[in-house]
Structure formats: structure tokens, C-alpha cells
Design brief:
Number of strands: 6
Order of helices and strands: EHEEEHEE
Structural class: alpha+beta
Strand content: 15-25%
Largest sheet: 4 strands, mixed
Length: 150
């Protein structure tokens, strides 16, 4: 028998202040967290709704880590990125034939913006040098003037 006093409560329990629990705890039934939830340790939740399961060295290690995948889950298989994309469907992992995992930026779609920024920088730099050559000094801060040799 334990030296720690225990009390079993059958029915509802409402606590209006802080609660600190030491040791292990098992909660059964449905829970609802109305505020923020902070987990300091690892979250081990196999049924969490997260479609990307990670990067795995082989299809075997993927199947070992997630032997019963849910529809919509996907994972990357390979040693480097981009890697083969695997999709879960009807409890099985299967390759899609596509690769993924490499961030791509379509520069063609923003090339006009890049050219505009370059032109503005060039224009402002030229006007700055023109102004400096007229004054003969560069104002480094409110108290320091440096002679400019042109």
C-alpha cells in the first residue's frame, strides 16, 4: 500500500485554479482543450492529422515507421532532395513516380520586378555618387565627415 493518500472521485470534477500533476497520467475519453496547449517533450500521436510524414532512406524504413498509413499521407524516400514521393492509399505506401522536396522559385514570374529593382538601385547609386562628388565629402554620421577622393 502506498504512503501517499489517494482519493477516488466518481462523477464530475471542476477545478477553478492551477493543477500540477507529478508522475504518469492516463486520460480516457474525449478531451477538449479550450486554450493554448504547450508540449515540452515529444508529441507521440500516431493519429495526428499531418499529411507529410518525413524523409526516409528507403520504402522499407517508411513502411516500418508507418505500417498502417491513412489515405492522403505522403512521404519522401531517398538520401537527398529532391526525393521520390510516396503516397498512402488504402493502407499501402506506393511511389507516385514524381520527385519532390526541393524548393523552387519561378524567376520568370518575378523577372520584371527584379529588373525594376536593379534599375532603381543603379539610379539611386549614381545620384548618390553625383551628390557626393559635388560636396566632396561623405557624411558617415552626424559627427564624422570623411574626405572623398575622386
Amino acid at each position: 500500500m502506498s504512503a501517499i493518500k489517494t482519493t477516488q472521485i466518481d462523477g464530475d470534477l471542476a477545478i477553478g485554479r492551477n493543477v500540477a500533476i507529478g508522475g504518469n497520467m492516463t486520460i480516457q475519453g474525449k478531451e477538449h482543450v479550450k486554450g493554448s496547449l504547450k508540449v515540452d517533450g515529444w508529441l507521440d500521436a500516431p493519429n495526428i492529422k499531418q499529411p507529410c510524414m518525413g524523409l526516409f532512406a528507403s520504402a522499407e524504413t517508411l513502411a516500418e515507421a508507418y505500417p498502417h498509413p491513412r489515405n492522403g499521407w505522403w512521404a519522401l524516400v531517398g538520401d537527398t532532395l529532391p526525393a521520390a514521393v510516396y503516397r498512402a492509399w488504402h493502407g499501402e505506401w506506393s511511389p507516385t513516380g514524381e520527385t519532390g522536396g526541393e524548393p523552387n522559385i519561378e524567376l520568370e514570374s518575378i523577372q520584371d520586378d527584379i529588373d525594376t529593382i536593379k534599375a532603381e538601385l543603379k539610379k539611386s547609386t549614381v545620384s548618390w555618387f553625383d551628390e557626393v562628388s559635388k560636396q566632396g565629402t561623405i557624411k558617415m554620421s552626424s559627427s564624422v565627415d570623411t574626405d572623398l577622393v575622386i
